[in-house]
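Quick one from the shared queue. A colleague (R.T.) flagged tRNA glutamyl-Q(34) synthetase GluQRS as missing a structural entry in our internal table.

Convert sequence to structure tokens.
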Amino acid sequence: MTAWTATRGQEPASRAPVTTRFAPSPTGRLHLGHAFSALLAHDFARAAGGRFLLRIEDIDGTRSRPEHIDGIVEDLAWLGLRWDESVLRQTERLAAYAEALGRLRAAGLVYPCFCTRSDIAAAASAPHGPAGALYPGTCRALAPDARAARLGEPHAWRLDIAAARAAAPARLFFDDGRLGRIEARPERQGDIVLARKDAPSSYHLAATLDDAWTGVTDVVRGEDLVEATHVHRLLQALLGLPTPRYHHHRLLAGADGRRLAKRDGAPSLAGMRAAGADPAALVAELRARAISLASDGEGPTLRQ
């Protein structure tokens, strides 16, 4: 497959200035877990004399809200975090995602999927069905003429993981500042969606392309995204993109021991601000938490 480079600069990641990013989705207000991740990415870049970028992952039109974008900017400014360059919104990059998907289609590495969630759930629960929630491959088996006849129906585009692995190097690796060198195993997630029925790109494709285009050298994010990195490494290989260094940090937990999450009602930064919280004290507390985790081996150990 022809290598395709979508980076703004021409320097390889190993020689480029350190660049990190914080990339929230505007589906709710930021909470302490977000602040922790944003602060780690910010401090990592600043310590190296590099760039810290802000990206808004707003391609989910059913859940993203303009007021939440404003809230993200307000919350980060309240914490005293400053970013370089203008804020990037993924809705400004739809043509780039479509081009990349087109290249993968031309290479025969993706296929349209017409299944509904109920179709997938039924197939997965059938006797001898696939373990867990992996897509069972129903539409992968459709004949070319049957696919063509149905393209007018709502459909997603899935990566044919077997074909993609055959088109990429036999072994792929990525480096993590806390976890070390990891061999990518994207096949564990099956035929993932690269473009949804209701969105022009999935998180996997958009995030991978945007990191390359903005010259991100170091991806600082929570350890809940380690598995996603296996897929991103494969996409980098297929599209000829550079591989950044990764730093997957431990997640902050609440008093109940569960990780902080929007869906569980984690206290928002906006609520803390309204209650009169001191942002400087909050940032100092988060930095102390990062140092404590690093000293006891729990991470994040963010090495240059």
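The domain at 19-114+154-295 is CATH 3.40.50.620 (Rossmann fold).
Strands lie at 19-22, 51-56, 88-89, 110-113, 156-159, 173-176, 180-183, 193-195, 218-222, 245-249.
Added to the table.
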